[in-house]
Amino acid sequence: MRVPLIAGNWKMNKTISEAVAFAQELKLLAPFPGVEVLICPPYPALAPVAEVLAGTEIALGAQNVHWEDAGAFTGEVSPPMLKAAGCRYVIIGHSERRQYFGETDEIIQRKLKAALRHDLIPILCVGESLEVRERGGTFDLIAKQLEGALSGIGEEEIKELVIAYEPVWAIGTGRNARPEDAQEVNCFIRDWLARRYSPVKAGSWRIQYGGSVTPDNAAELLAQPDIDGALVGGASLKVESFAAIIRAAA
Ligand code: PEP
Hints:
- Helices cover about 40% and strands about 15% of the residues.
- The chain is an alpha/beta fold.
- It has an eight-stranded parallel β-barrel, surrounded by five helices.
- α5 packs across α7 (about 140-150) and α7 (about 140-150) crosses α8.
- The model has no long low-confidence stretch (mean pLDDT about 100).
- Phosphoenolpyruvate binds near residues 166, 171, 210 and 231.
- Its EC number is 5.3.1.1.
- Homodimer.
């Protein structure tokens, strides 16, 4: 039985005080039976938000990570730093990182390996552009992204893994994938993982959907058998809409 994971990816939004206020408000609504809730604020807000969330079941995650533990990498943040700030999860390979910051499958693989080594649960993002979907290349592209990110990573290295299927054309556009289309891709991802690792592992790892999830469409998306939660951008910035999506998952 997979517990759905509802994760808020705040991207480059909220100052420390805004993030703390959000966490305090969300905490008042906890616990959330039957759902795991995660928020991923920008780096500066991680430690202050961790303090607010201490003693609750609301998890904290980062939006990115470097693959080295320490060193001369100006502007980067390492897995031990994220652990020390209170993170349990880290988003890796978000399409905005791939698109605007040149992250390749090889970079994503390094980050994934580093996160796993430090006991951070990776949320690996995969997803196709509109152009790829329209020419029927979705499954090939998803397989290529999975292969690239997971190459050389053995089952024994993975305690827990989350995949987020996020079609690029659905992110921040207000145009979500149809539930049956998202289900089809999530099922494809699970089959791929079952072949690559084992059916037991693939059956236990959560596969989220992300892309314009709102309180209005969440229930229908989350009702699909292979959609085990949502990675939520815009609608995670307000407690009211984020809480409504959490309720839809319960
Ligand atoms: C995201 O950033 O991962 C995302 C899915 O954004 P939005 O919900 O705003 O489409």
